[in-house]
């Protein structure tokens, strides 16, 4: 191990500083613009109830999503079947489905007049499903996040070195031994980061919790922040609430990180290998059950987006082409930015780890997910306040939209890229140092071959996520800045539910294609 | 390949974002802020733009935010730097907060031609359309809608409803005010009685109306003019608004010129045009609301047979601003138990 003291700070350190500065700038601008003092604020009974509810639902959603996601990933890793690629692309599309589309799909399937109700009717049952309340929230959250978890876990499982599988076959590992010695260490290494990310997504979930929750008591802090920022224009309260949210998320992700440590990765290249446990008949039945359950959860909700197909011919016009162009441009910029930021941070974490400073490395690992705890609405508003006077509001929108989207996609990109970078470091780090390979040469020769697959996945996911984002467009959209989600809401506001559904279908289909394309790029 | 697409994408963004000011060199530009559905494919915005530009020798540029609340939020963020000349689409409940920004100039318009259920005296804000909040239902699914707001709220066997959250949505807050006008201090109990029949509270009007059309509830909080849309566009006669004996909440959409405008003359011209036939005739079947000044041709056929409440509830904006927090807290207590 060579210990090198770099003269220049690692680019990742600059990224970390930049992100912290952006957050500070935005908070500072909010507090600075506030007319009331932030002290006049108490945790009233309503807010306490919201906190308890938000924590409970986020913990439950996370446990279910991560657990089911792991089971799905293992089943998919063990089985090869026709259409498996489509299943993987479907998971990729599900993971980034816009909240409003998820809400309408859940209602179309599980609603009072939904498919399930129609099925029950046909069977002569008068039972009526009710998706509003815990059921709807959990279905929607598990749909989104189990898909994400399955994709991340599956990627991680592919990193088990080929030697391990040969050894396992020689030693005659049964399914339990395989799980314990091969799969579990890998799953465990992904667990804290992934669970932290899913928890944050559920804890800050806004439209899903509010619309499917059934009552104002079922809300998240994000609703209170939205209210303070957009309705009461009480910037001080918004900043305090956002700070509270940040503190809760920070303490939870920190404890997760300390509870579960990363497993070391063996220094070899992995090759596609037939898993010896695939033949076990009990596992075969289990996997079949898991895959069937997955199909039952994902297939109807994804299929529900197809109801938008009827109105497709009516939305295909110049308006849509323009919005799609803007969406694509913003998605490409923000996905590229998100991947670049994630790589820089992961590189800094790696450098810190090889200098034997695990605390610093953990801080880098935490940062991307923590950024999610800052409400995008507060971040955008704060940055806009800081920018005003320097650029016109339209220009500010064009600057902030890709930036805030990139920051939103950063934790996703990081989950794909950081483990892969850690793998290359542990496998080739010493060799690369011995050969004096650094910087771009190292990236091209050493890291890229391993990184290509997760990079494609991360880029596709980040692009799809940004493609479907509505948060910031709600405030700064319009004029030249019209994206597909903007158009979706515009049609919804003009009674054109069917056209909104058609645009929703386009968004989901794009995510599906991106995901399939990423898988193909990764293979060749 | 990725390296080629990124700069290209950045270029598109830059062109789209920064090219707009260049187009405004020859003629003066009037920037009108409004909510997105007003200028969308089906809104009246485009036709209004063409008609106004034909007479003003200027460029009318629409700048949009998602809804009235976002509009106010954006103005608040922009402050004195706002390039807005006119803001169109706030509602009465936001009027006081908007006024407090100190961004608006007196309209100076003649209000004698206004056709509202109430007298108009505001010197800053001008109404451009109005409507009643009402509960819309599908007669094939609900044959006997309640006759009073009281019955809707308190009858345990009454219809199920989908509502908007009073914190995040203008009609949602409107219903809270409406219930307070009808039930007085007893409004939290009324809400507690209604709660079991509320399928859900959505964050905006669109989501609630969508859920209603999908068949999730018997009634939805919307506007008394909503059935006109279904009749005119879909040829569908089954949707109606229930008329309540106590009277209905009056929703008035307002506009104002900014004090910081570079084109104050043009902004005033636009406000005057707003009350003329050229603008008002586009409102009924463009924004699905009642015009603030009756167009020469009168109301379209699709508006025939809509409910005409005897009583219109309108709330003093100053009082609303002062009591807003207390009302919301009581409402939250009643509905989130």
The topology string of helices and strands of chain B comes to: HEHHEHEHEEHEHHEHEHEEHHHEEH
For the biggest sheet of chain B, the summary is: 12 strands, mixed
Number of helices of chain B: 14
Main sheet specs of chain A? none
Describe this structure in words.
The complex is a heterodimer of chains A (524) and B (337). Chain A is mainly alpha-helical and 524 residues long. Chain A has helices spanning 11-33, 45-78, 84-95, 99-110, 115-122, 134-157, 162-171, 175-203, 207-213, 221-231, 235-259, 281-304, 312-315, 318-354, 358-371, 376-387, 393-435, 439-467, 473-476, 484-492, 497-523. Chain A contains 21 helices and no strands. In chain A, α1 packs antiparallel against α11 (235-259). Chain A is globular and about 65 Å long. Chain B is built from 14 helices and twelve strands. In chain B, α5 (92-100) packs across α14 (317-335) and α8 (187-194) crosses α14. The radius of gyration of chain B is 21 Å and the shape is globular. At the A-B interface, α4, α9, α10, α14 and α16 of A face α1, α2, β2, α4 and β7 of B.
Question: TL;DR?
Answer:
Chain A has helices spanning 11-33, 45-78, 84-95, 99-110, 115-122, 134-157, 162-171, 175-203, 207-213, 221-231, 235-259, 281-304, 312-315, 318-354, 358-371, 376-387, 393-435, 439-467, 473-476, 484-492, 497-523. By secondary structure, chain A is mainly alpha-helical.
Characteristic terms for this protein:
heterodimer; A: 524 residues; mainly alpha; 21 helices; 76% helix; globular; B: 337 residues; alpha/beta; twelve-stranded mixed β-sheet; 14 helices; 41% helix; 20% strand; disordered N terminus
Topology:
The complex is a heterodimer of chains A (524) and B (337).
Chain A lengths: L10 H23 L11 H34 L5 H12 L3 H12 L4 H8 L11 H24 L4 H10 L3 H29 L3 H7 L7 H11 L3 H25 L21 H24 L7 H4 L2 H37 L3 H14 L4 H12 L5 H43 L3 H29 L5 H4 L7 H9 L4 H27 L1
Helix pairs in contact in A: 1-11, 1-14, 1-16, 2-6, 2-8, 2-12, 3-6, 3-21, 4-6, 4-9, 4-12, 6-8, 6-9, 8-11, 8-15, 8-17, 10-11, 11-15, 14-15, 14-17, 14-18, 15-17, 16-17, 17-18, 18-21, 20-21
Chain B lengths: L1 H17 L10 E7 H4 L5 H12 L2 E7 L2 H11 L7 E6 H9 L3 E2 L20 E13 L10 H6 L6 E4 L5 H14 L3 H8 L3 E5 L2 H9 L5 E5 L2 H9 L4 E4 L5 E11 L5 H11 L2 H4 L3 H4 L2 E2 L20 E2 L3 H19 L2
Parallel strand pairs in B: 1-2, 1-3, 6-7, 6-8, 10-12
Antiparallel strand pairs in B: 3-10, 4-10, 5-8, 5-9, 5-10, 5-11
């Amino acid at each position: 191990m060579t210990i090198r003291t770099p003269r220049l700070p690692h680019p990742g350190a600059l990224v970390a500083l930049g992100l912290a500065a952006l957050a500070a700038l935005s908070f500072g601008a909010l507090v600075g613009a506030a007319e009331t003092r932030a002290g006049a604020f108490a945790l009233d009974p309503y807010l306490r109830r919201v906190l308890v509810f938000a924590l409970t639902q986020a913990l439950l959603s996370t446990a279910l999503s991560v657990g089911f996601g792991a089971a799905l990933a293992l089943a998919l890793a063990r089985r090869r079947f026709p259409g498996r690629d489509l299943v993987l692309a479907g998971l990729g599309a599900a993971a980034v489905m816009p909240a409003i589309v998820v809400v309408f799909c859940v209602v179309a399937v599980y609603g009072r007049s939904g498919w399930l109700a129609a099925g029950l009717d046909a069977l002569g049952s008068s039972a009526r499903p009710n998706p509003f309340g815990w059921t709807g929230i959990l279905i929607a959250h598990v749909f989104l996040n189990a898909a994400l978890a399955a994709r991340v876990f599956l990627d991680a499982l592919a990193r088990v070195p080929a030697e391990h599988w040969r050894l396992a076959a020689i030693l005659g590992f049964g399914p339990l031994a395989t799980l314990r010695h091969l799969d579990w260490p890998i799953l465990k290494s992904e667990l804290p980061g992934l669970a932290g990310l899913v928890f944050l997504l559920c804890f800050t979930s806004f439209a899903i919790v509010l619309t499917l929750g059934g009552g104002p008591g079922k809300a998240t802090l994000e609703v209170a922040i939205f209210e303070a920022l957009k309705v009461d224009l009480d910037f001080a309260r918004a900043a305090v609430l956002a700070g509270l949210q940040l503190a809760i998320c920070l303490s939870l992700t920190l404890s997760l990180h300390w509870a579960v440590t990363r497993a070391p990765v063996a220094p070899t290249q992995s090759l596609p290998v037939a898993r010896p446990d695939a033949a076990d008949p009990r596992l075969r039945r289990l996997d079949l059950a898991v895959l069937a359950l997955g199909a039952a959860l994902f297939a109807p909700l994804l299929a529900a987006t197809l109801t938008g197909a009827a109105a497709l011919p009516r939305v295909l016009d110049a308006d849509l082409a323009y919005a799609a162009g803007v969406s694509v441009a913003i998605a490409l910029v923000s996905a590229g930015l998100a991947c670049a930021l994630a790589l820089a941070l992961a590189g800094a974490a790696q450098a810190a780890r090889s200098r034997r400073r695990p605390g610093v490395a953990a801080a880098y690992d935490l940062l991307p997910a923590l950024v999610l705890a800052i409400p995008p609405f507060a971040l955008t508003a704060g940055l806009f306040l800081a920018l005003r006077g320097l650029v016109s509001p339209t220009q500010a929108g064009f600057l902030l939209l890709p930036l805030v989207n990139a920051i939103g996609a950063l934790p996703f990109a990081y989950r794909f890229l950081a483990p892969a970078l850690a793998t290359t470091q542990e496998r080739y780090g010493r060799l690369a140092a011995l050969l004096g390979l650094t910087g771009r040469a190292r990236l091209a020769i050493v890291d890229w071959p391993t990184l290509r697959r997760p990079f494609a996945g991360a880029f596709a996911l980040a692009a799809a996520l940004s493609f479907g984002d509505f948060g910031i467009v709600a405030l700064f959209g319009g004029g030249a800045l019209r994206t597909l989600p903007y158009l979706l809401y515009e049609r919804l506001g003009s009674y054109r539910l069917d056209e909104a559904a058609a645009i929703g279908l386009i968004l989901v289909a794009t995510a599906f294609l991106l995901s399939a394309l990423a898988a193909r790029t990764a293979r060749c | 390949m990725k390296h080629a697409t990124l700069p290209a994408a950045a270029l598109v963004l830059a062109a789209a974002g920064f090219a707009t000011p260049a187009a405004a060199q020859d003629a003066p530009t009037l920037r009108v802020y409004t909510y997105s559905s007003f200028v969308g494919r089906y809104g009246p915005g485009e036709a209004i733009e063409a008609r106004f530009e034909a007479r003003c020798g200027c460029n009318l540029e629409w700048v949009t935010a998602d809804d009235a609340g976002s509009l106010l939020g954006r103005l608040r963020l922009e402050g004195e730097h706002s390039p807005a000349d006119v803001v169109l689409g706030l509602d009465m409940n936001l009027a006081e907060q908007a006024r407090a920004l100190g961004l608006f100039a007196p309209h100076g318009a003649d209000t004698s031609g206004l056709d509202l259920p109430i007298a108009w005296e505001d010197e800053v804000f001008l109404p451009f359309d109005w409507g009643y909040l009402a509960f819309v239902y599908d007669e094939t699914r609900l044959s006997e809608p309640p006759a009073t707001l009281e019955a809707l709220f308190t009858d345990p066997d009454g219809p199920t409803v989908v509502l908007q959250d009073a914190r995040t949505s203008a009609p949602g807050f409107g219903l809270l005010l409406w219930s307070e006008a009808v039930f007085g201090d007893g409004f939290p109990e009324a809400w507690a009685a209604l709660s079991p029949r509320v399928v859900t509270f959505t964050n905006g009007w669109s989501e609630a109306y969508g859920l209603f059309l999908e068949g999730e509830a018997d009634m939805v909080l919307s506007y008394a003019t909503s059935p006109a849309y279904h009749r005119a566009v879909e040829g569908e006669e089954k949707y109606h608004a229930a008329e309540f004996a106590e009277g209905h909440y009056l929703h008035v959409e307002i506009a104002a010129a900014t004090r910081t405008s570079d084109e104050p003359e043009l902004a005033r011209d636009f406000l005057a045009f707003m009350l003329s036939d050229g603008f008002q005739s586009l409102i009924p079947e463009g924004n699905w609301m009642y015009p603030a000044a009756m167009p020469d041709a009168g109301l379209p056929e699709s508006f025939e047979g809509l409910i005409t409440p005897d009583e219109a509830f309108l709330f003093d904006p100053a009082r609303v601003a002062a009591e807003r927090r207390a009302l919301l807290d009581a409402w939250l207590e009643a509905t989130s138990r």
